[in-house]
Amino acid sequence: MKGSNFSYLVKQGVVSVWYNRVMSFASFCILMVSLLLIGLAVLFSLDISVIIGNIEDRNEMLVFVDGDIDDSELSYISDVLNSQDYVSRVVFYSKEQAWEDEKLSEKYGSGATALFESVDENPMPTTYRVTLNDITKVHEAAERFRRIEGVDWVAAPYDFAEFLISVRNTFTIIGIAILSALVVVCLVIIYNTARASVFARRMQISIMKHVGATNSFIKFPFFIEGMFIGFLAGTASWYLTKVAYESVFSVFERDIMILQFLGFSNVMGFEAIKWYVLAANCLAGALLGAIGTILSMGKHLKV
Amino acid sequence: MVELKNVDVHYKEGGVDALNDVNLRINDGEFVFIVGSSGAGKSTLLKLLTRELSPTNGRVFVNGYNLSKLGARKIPKFRRSIGMIFQDFRLIPNLTVYENVAFVLRVTDRSRRFIRQRVPYVLNLVKLYDKARSYPSQLSGGEQQRVAIARAFASDPGLIIADEPTGNIDPELSYEIVELLKDINQCGTTVLMVTHEHDLVKYFGGRIISLKKGCVDFDDYIGGNNEG
Read out DSSP for A186-228? Predict the structure, then answer.
């Protein structure tokens, strides 16, 4: 294809958008709504994932060490705990600190001071408080920590971990199912809209075939047209996604309690991801528009 | 040159024999009328000559191409060697008159300079240069058909196939259209015109091929009324 033909075909593709403006507008609307729905579904499922992740990050395992352990052994345990991939944080909690905290605890009431002073030896254990970055590793971690020399026993939130894992799995399955159904429905609608648009111009395609145009020569302006409409729809859907997302976000922002309870403080604000969303919407719109149009031309090219 | 050798076309759907053992030879530079009633096989013959259809049996040669063996990839190149004129004009509605004619030249990767010279030339031939910027919907039927003729002739094809080109225009303009095709024929282009208007055929005369029930019923030259 010559350069002059390339620019001519690109121009024809763009001009066709205006010439077939009714079908172009229909394709634009369908693509925009599809991208809006898919975009919101993706963002909210990512948010749910972040929220669950935040809750998961609050997990804590307690690693109790033997009472008669020296500093070098403590250091060894600390090194082993920190060297595990799935460990995000290790906090040392000395028996002295534990004893002091216990004394200050309100659970014993105001007359407990004399009771604590009558005890000669500190009975509290030395512990390491370990936070995992992957809660699915809780059993593996507990087993590994138990085998470290100098560790007495390990307390892990098994039930909490299993509950969170099942919640995450359920949300993942629901998210994938909704997203898949949405993608399939949108693709069917986009394909049918593109087919209707191409069908309205089947005579034009037939004329081009009769004068000796190759399939690629005929397809190219349609490709540009679909891509152009898709790009515009992607941009428009980005703006609508922004409005919808920020509206939902502001509802939760108004009530700090809900925000904190759900772990919303770390949820993605639209401002931080707006360029990624814009790029994804425009790219997806352009690809869907172009591919949908090209796929729906097949039958009409057999002249 | 157009040549059909023992050509049969059988439509599986409906079990119809559209053409039966047709043998034809049309030499370069000829002007031929193809006539016949509905169902005689005229449309099937045209579809064979434009490679919309392949014969069930026999061989079809057009402009040096053996259409019976022509692969799908080579069809566009073959079609650039012929010009097609249709009863319903088939102009691209969103292109101007100029662009409709230029389109066939763009398809063949002609240079901008060539297109700028050739399109005004052919539009002048059909006396429509002043309508170059108009859209098909702004033209009368006769004018649209003249644009279609200009488009068919623009790439200077060896053969022009006209499928009832006067079917959708006023009778008095029909003679003008055929005159235009005759002028093109005088330039050396073979013209094959399908029509059911016997008055036109009698008026212009020349070689007449009549089809009847899928067979060549008549193939000979007759004198035209315009020759006296």
Answer: HHHHHHHHHHHHHHTTHHHHHHHHHTT--HHHHHHHHHHHHHH
Q: Which letter, b or e, does each residue of B93-114 get, where b requires 16 or more Cβ atoms within 10 Å of its Cβ? A: ebbbbbbbbbbbbbbbebeeee
Structure token digits, residue B42: 């005229």
Do the Cβ atoms of B107 and A211 come within 8 Å?
A: yes
* Candidates A10, A205, A208, A211, partner chain B, best to mutate (most B CBs within 10 A): A211
User: Chain B partners of A8 at a C-beta cutoff of 8 Å?
Assistant: 106
pTM of whole model > 0.95? no
**Enclosing domain of residue B159:** 2-17+30-222
* Tens digit of each residue's pLDDT, chain A (303 residues): 666 678 888 888 888 888 888 888 988 998 899 899 989 988 888 888 888 887 777 788 999 998 778 888 888 999 999 998 889 899 999 888 888 887 777 666 666 676 777 777 788 888 999 999 888 889 999 999 999 988 989 998 888 888 888 888 898 898 889 888 888 888 888 788 778 878 877 888 888 888 888 888 888 888 898 899 999 999 999 999 999 998 887 877 776 666 666 666 667 778 888 999 999 999 999 998 888 888 888 777 877
Count chain A–chain B contacts defined by CB atoms under 8 A: 51
- What ipTM is given for this predicted complex? 0.84
- List the CATH number of the domain containing B202: 3.40.50.300
When divided into structural domains, chain B yields a total of: 1
B193 is a domain residue:
yes
Q: Which domains does chain A carry? A: 3-55+163-301 (no CATH), 60-156 (3.30.70.3040)
**Pick from B76, B78, B90: CB nearest A207:** B90
